[in-house]
Amino acid sequence: QVQLVESGGGLLQTGGSLKLSCEGSGSIFSINTMYWYRQAPGKQRELVASITTAGSTDYPDSVKGRFTVSRDNAKNTVYLQMNSLKPEDTAVYYCNADVYTIGSRTGWYSYWGQGTQVTVSS
Question: Given the DSSP bridges, would you call strands 116-121 and 10-13 parallel, antiparallel or unpaired?
């Protein structure tokens, strides 16, 4: 069994900064690309950052220059540093990863965390 657990969400004012973490645990052999998504009320889930095993990153224009994704492969952890936050960044943030699992369920599978709330007040 594999779990992804996010942490670091909270309530803050416009212009503030926050760093989210997502740690993987369980029957993990390796993790390929890791992603951060967000979903605001009444909206579709959107991708906000991705990072490959080698460290290549990608962002949509809406967060480029403000968000930075990083990872610690030894800790199976991905981070999202969010700066210059705006009210429109308010959402539940989810991590997602392509994981090669071992044990009773061997192979590549996509896993999601439970989400962490980020609220930015104006």
Answer: parallel
Identity at 89, one-letter amino acid code: D
Lookup: tokens for 29: 């052999």
Query: Per-residue pLDDT for 105 more than 90?
Result: no
What tens digit of pLDDT does each residue of 44-99 get? 999 999 999 999 999 999 999 999 999 999 999 999 999 999 999 999 999 999 99
Q: Average pLDDT over the chain, rounded to whole?
A: 96
**How many CB atoms within 10 Å of residue 104?**
7
DSSP character for 84? Answer: S
List of long-range contacts for 111-115, beta carbons under 8 Å, 24+ apart: 111/2, 111/3, 111/4, 111/24, 112/4, 113/4, 113/5, 113/6, 113/22, 114/4, 114/5, 114/6, 115/6, 115/39
Query: What CA–CA distance (Å, rounded) separates 39 from 24?
Result: 21
